[in-house]
Amino acid sequence: MLKISRILHAGYVFECEGAQIAFDTIFENPFSRNCHAFPDVRFDHEQIRRQKFAAVFISHFHDDHCSLESLDLLDRATPLYIYCIFDELFDMVRQLGFTNVQQLRLNVPVHIGPFEVVPREAMDADVDSMFQVKAAGMNVLNVVDSWIDETTLAQLAQEGPWDMVLWPFQTMREIEVLQPSRSSAAPPELPEEWIAQLKVLNPRYVVPSSCQFLQEPWSWYNRAFFPISYRQFTREVGEALPQAQVVRLNPSVSVLLDAASLTAAPPLPWIAPMGEQDVDYQYEGNAAPPATADIARHFAPLTAEQHARVMDYCRVGLLEKYGDVEASSEYFDQPRIWQLSVYGHDGQCAQFRYRLQADGAALAGGSAGPLGWTTEIPAAKLYAALELGESLTSMYMRINDAVFDAATEQDLAEADAVDDPLIRCLFSDTFGAYQAAQLRRLLAQQGQ
After folding, report:
1. Which fold does the domain 292-445 belong to in CATH?
2. Bridge-based pairing state of the strands 164-167 and 138-142
3. Domain extent listing, the chain
4. Residues of the chain with pLDDT > 70: what percent?
5. What's the distance, CA 26 to chain centroid?
6. Of the residues 59, 139, 354, 447, which has the fewest C-beta atoms closer than 10 A?
7. Tell me, what's the pLDDT at 448?
8. How many whole angstroms separate alpha carbon 43 and alpha carbon 40?
9. How many CB atoms are located within 10 Å of the residue 183 CB?
10. pLDDT digits (tens, 9 = 90+) for 361-402
11. What is the pTM of this model?
């Protein structure tokens, strides 16, 4: 018999014959700085410190899957198996004190007591992986974050039959909320590919493995990020796979899986559910986004030193960086005037205009034009990206919320929002900024 318990998102504990292994161990709420678990939970860190996992598996380096502050709660002798192509992450984990850190290889099984864990290729093999878990005669697929390409799907079909599939049932609109005036509301229905892939896998049980979270109570993102509800997922999968059972596992909830049934088991004692748990996301399209100036007022004012850091980056650091990072589309192959607006806690705006060329950027006069791109951001969030490793998901950046001349509008139709000059300069060639910031804090706490 195999016991499966939910932590958060793609985080699970599997237990068999007295051995426990864990996946994507996030023991924080909020995680990724301001992503609040939905439904709400609290973690008992003292109990977590007493846990003895036979191994921990991490599917990829994104901060909602690999957090050093969560790993810091674990015994340093715990074997860590990480899928990542970047050596820097392994160096950081070892600096934290872990003595048994292994790099996972696709399709190479790892045996831990009664478990066989096989990393499988995800859609973007440079970033993430999936996990096939075998124990007690059961065969479980944790799809983590990925969509599945045709080659891997054919391979997984040969690995069946599947007793359970943990399916990432949400489609996050993290790019669309950056440019709400240029994005259409997503239909609240499952992509056709999901149903087709689940039919191929044909599992006995399907778990909607959700990345749902809420941000600050005032955030318009709370109505705009996630189009698909548990209710919708259950209905569509139930109609398409009538032989399968859709099972919701909230954080802490545990089940026992065997060849004949799935039954409830005692929950994880170190996760405390807070309030109603069978909640569902309420999607409202683009949800009338407020002005960036109003969003900026919700954040604490920067100190003089922090403000100087942001202004120096806008005047100097960004210019030094721009020529080193390339756009993926051709939009910036020709010169463009870019306007960056940085909003302080008082709603006041510091505005910068840049003349962008393929090989570099220079400050331009305030009347330079015509504008070819605009970016707005709260100063507090720009500082957080520079110094705290905050990711794009919670930056409240606003891109091209303007009407440009006809020729520019025509060109913009072929441009990609993530080609935004600020996004490229902050994130394009930076690996593990979030974990690096965590490591600095943790080592400082230890006096190192």
Report:
1. Nonspecific Lipid-transfer Protein; Chain A (3.30.1050)
2. parallel
3. 2-273, 292-445
4. 100
5. 12
6. 447
7. 63
8. 10
9. 16
10. 999 988 888 999 999 999 999 999 999 988 898 999 999 999
11. 0.93
Tokens read off for 111: 């045996």
